[in-house]
Amino acid sequence: MKKLFMFFSLLLAVGAVSAENYLISTAKTSLLVTATEGERPKYQYYGARIEKGDIQGIFDSGLALDVESYPAFGLKTANEKAIAVQHNDGNMTLDLAVTGVRQFSAEDGDITEITMKDKVYPFVVKQLFKAYKGTDIISTWVEIENKGKKAVTLYRFASAFFPLQRGDNWMTHFHGFWGSEHTMAEEQLTNGQKTISNKDGMCNTEQDNPSFLISMDGKPGEEHGQVFAGTLAWTGNYLIKVIASNTALSVSAGINEETSFYKLEKNEIFVTPEFCMTYSTTGKGGVSRAFHRWARKYKLWEGDVAEDILLNSWEGVYFNVNQKEMDNMMKEFSAIGGELFVMDDGWFGDKYPRNNGSSSLGDWMVCKEKLPEGVGGLIASAKKHNIKFGIWIEPESSNTKSELFENKPKWILRVDNRPVSTGRGGTQVILDLSNPEVQDFVFGVVDSLMTNFPEIKYMKWDANCSVQDYGSYYLPKDKQSHIYIEYHRGLRKVCERIRAKYPKLVMQACAGGGGRVNYGFLPYFNEFWTSDDTDALQRIYLQWGVSTFYPAIAMASHVSADKNHQTGRRVPLKFRFDVAMSGRLGMEIQPKDMSETDKAFAKRAIAAYKSIRPVVQFGDLYRLVSPYDNKGLASLMYVTPEQNEAVFYVYKTAHFINSIIPVVKMAGLDANKNYKVKDLTPVDEKKPCAVDGKVFSGKMLMEEGLAMRNLLKTEYSSVALHLVEVK
Ligand code: DGJ
To answer: Which of 662, 621, 667, 625 is nearest to 541 (CA)?
Structure first.
């Protein structure tokens, strides 16, 4: 397939194009770049779609940005640069000029490739833009080639550098910590620099996500406002810099080069990660819908296949996995309509059984004491209870207390003449994925489980440690500064091998919660774990942030125990379900501890989710009332592309007597259609909420809305409604 695609691309390549202005468009957006031979390429415009006939107008109106698209350090050194190098003779300058432009069509997008060469040194930079077909996403990256005889050192190698119009700009990004990942932060940009970066080495989204929005015309609304939005598709350390002054605004995004200068050998090509962006004239909602459609079509593994409803064993039993308990959980979950059971941490380790976080990673054999019948016994249970089976792994790590570490002490990232630093449990260490032997081992963890037990349908791939010591036994001395980068290249190679061999295996990206929610990792995964915090109230805020760039189908959202294990909050089961049902529904609970009434409710809620699954997992998201606006409630909805079905959620986020409870107006419906409403999760089947069974026009629901005063009466009240078109 790949070969065929390359052939197709070549056939369509049109060679040097004479025009200097290149218009790169999607259905709703356009990017205008000037690339004249012998000169530096420049950005002129990125915004709502324009046609060729509008190009002159961009210049005449003064809107043209006229800013270099990939500024290089060395000559006219002031201002932010995208690339900085040192040639072998000590010269630290680049003078890049366009030598050609190709435009061609690939399977997934239309590509514009601008080739630049240094005027003196044999050094080439290709800047590429891809307009993804059938979406409103354009991505950009560069390929840096050393055509000289000696190595060149790269000190700065951004994926993208972008000028934007300065005005009343607001920046939105997603900050956090363990348990509070993806908390939305929104602020007016003041002059100066704002940096979002990551230095974890392993997992890059726990403390901030490499995704952000910048508005052009004031605080962005959900459905109004002009917004630029971008995300860096990279799994490792990243750096996003926003620089604002009275007269200019620019953004650069790429791998974080700090302590990662790169020795580019002769004929080597360094390819930066993709920076993927959109421009919305319909606020943040337009951004999200564009990213979600693109993600499902191109960036998630099988983003068009509906996800199962699962029970994960973690909060139910933690490390106390055993055959009887697993069997019982499968039985109970199957009885309430569950489709998949995932056995989490605690199942492995022979010499050192895994009873807590301080041992056994790397020893991927079943702990016989806990599971005498092995994985086979669990699969037999799953068959018996008519449920699919999945398993947890953390294959990139080891513990100093493990057989793997004892046998392969040089397979971990460490520094020869210093004691080993450790992470979780006081013993966790990271394997050196720059080493091909280690890559084979990590691939082998999945491969041997799948070869021995092809019935395994799902794997949760966890990562609970940062890079500790910056040293690799594998990389040569003069390339130790490549560790952060080579680690992630190695990880990608492993993922590619897994996907080539196991395309149908469903995989979840987890990293101590939401540490790996990025578009570098997601192309190999079906979904991600958003946070270890399963508290339904906090999840409303957290999932709100996640939903800006990542689609509901990939957002695992689990109903957990009362009281919640992270916050200690007690929230009704209905509220917990209503929140979890706005993502990929699952449970993370000990079913045997649930009352019969709760089980009966869960059974009905699971059945209800099945009836709306395609709307949630493939529909368009409209966020209606933000929890961050402190209006006492939060609300969102999903609408099918045909606008014939929708699911509406509202949650009471604060409860005070006789406080204002706003009316909620819907969005995304067809004003001319009528919709019948069904209460999806009434606590008492015989007493659905007041709007159940009523018919409303789309116009009324969007212009007038629904009053919430009678629907949200008590603390932690919530409503989930299914709207179906009636003719
Ligand atoms: C961290 C994950 O986020 C949890 O869900 C769980 O899998 C634990 N690791 C297991 O150690």
So the answer is: 625
Ligand 1 neighbour 464 (Cβ under 6 A): yes
Determine whether the shortest distance from the Cβ of 346 to ligand 1 is under 6 A: no
Ligand 1 atom 11 nearest Cα: 345
529 touches ligand 1 (CB under 6 Å) = yes
Q: Does the C-beta of 462 come closer than 6 Å to ligand 1? A: yes
DSSP letter string, 312-349: ESHHHHTT---HHHHHHHHHHHHHTT--EEEE-S-SB-
Task: Say how many Å lie between the CA of residue 488 and the centre of ligand 1.
Answer: 21
CA distance 658 to 656: 6
CATH number of the 310-618 domain: 3.20.20.70
- Return phi, psi of residue 320, to 5°: -85, 55
Ligand 1 contact, 181 CB (< 6 A): no
- Reported as a single tens digit per residue, the pLDDT across 466-525 is 999 999 999 999 999 999 999 999 999 999 999 999 999 999 999 999 999 999 999 999
343 CA distance to ligand 1 centroid (A)? 11
Helices assigned H by DSSP within 502-572: 536-546
Task: Name the residue with tokens 């933000």.
Answer: 626
Q: Which of 313, 354, 392 to mutate to test the pocket of ligand 1 (most atoms within 8 A of CB)?
A: 392
Structure confidence by residue, pLDDT tens digits, 377-422: 999 999 999 999 999 999 999 999 999 999 999 999 999 999 999 9
Predicted confidence (pLDDT) per residue in 659-703, tens digit: 999 999 999 999 999 999 999 999 999 999 999 999 999 999 999
The CATH architecture assigned to 48-93+131-299 reads Distorted Sandwich (2.70)
Domain formed by 622-726, architecture: Sandwich (2.60)
Distance CA 688, CA 288 (A): 32
Asked whether 358 lines ligand 1 (CB < 6 A), one says no
The protein residue whose alpha carbon is closest to atom 2 in ligand 1 is: 512
Predicted confidence at residue 5, as pLDDT, reads 33
The one-letter amino acid at 592: K
Spans of all domains in the chain = 48-93+131-299, 310-618, 622-726
